[in-house]
């Protein structure tokens, strides 16, 4: 999971985002959550990236273990259940080939938020 996490971090700025806050004190279903802030217009728009833990994983895991996907959402998720407007990127084989779709969704969240405000 560390390689995937680092790759996401490396590409955020290229797509006009920065990690404004990082939360690791979460329920079992989320390994880590980033609150993103847009560097592009509309500057300051927020989105969330959540690293999801496999629901079938053993309860005794270390940070970064058993993460199966990363989710992008407009709102901060409060449970492992589906969030409106979410996009989930599985971190299995070929995940990096689907990264452009993940960032395209984040861009759509930025635009959507500016329209709704």
Number of domains: 1
Number of strands: 5
- Poorly predicted segments: none
Strand order of the largest sheet: 1-2-3-4-5
Q: In angstroms, what separates the terminal alpha carbons?
A: 35 Å
Quick one: overall form? globular
Number of helices: 2
Helix content: 10-25%
What structural class do the secondary elements suggest?
A: alpha+beta
Largest sheet: 5 strands, antiparallel
Strand content: 25-35%
Strand and helix order? HEEEEEH
Radius of gyration: 14 Å
- Describe the oligomeric state of these chains in a short phrase: single chain
Whole-number mean pLDDT:
89
Helix and strand layout, with pairings?
Blueprint: H1 2-12, E1 17-23, E2 30-38, E3 46-53, E4 67-73, E5 87-90, H2 99-116
Antiparallel strand pairs: 1-2, 2-3, 3-4, 4-5
Could you characterize the architecture of this molecule?
This protein is 25% helix and 30% strand. It contains 2 helices and 5 strands. The protein has a 5-stranded antiparallel β-sheet with strand order 1-2-3-4-5. The protein is globular. It starts with a helix and ends with a helix.
Keywords for this structure?
117 residues; alpha+beta
Tell me briefly what this model is.
The chain is of the alpha+beta class. 25% of the residues lie in helices and 30% in strands. The protein has one domain.
């Amino acid at each position: 999971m560390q390689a995937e996490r680092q790759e996401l971090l490396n590409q955020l700025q290229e797509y006009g985002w920065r990690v404004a806050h990082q939360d690791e004190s979460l329920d079992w279903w989320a390994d880590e959550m980033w609150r993103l802030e847009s560097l592009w217009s509309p500057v300051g728009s927020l989105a969330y990236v959540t690293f999801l833990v496999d629901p079938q994983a053993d309860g005794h895991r270390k940070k970064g273990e058993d993460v199966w996907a990363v989710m992008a959402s407009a709102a901060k998720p409060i449970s492992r259940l589906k969030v409106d407007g979410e996009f989930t990127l599985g971190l299995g084989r070929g995940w990096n080939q689907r990264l452009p779709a993940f960032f395209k969704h984040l861009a759509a969240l930025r635009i959507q938020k500016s329209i709704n405000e």
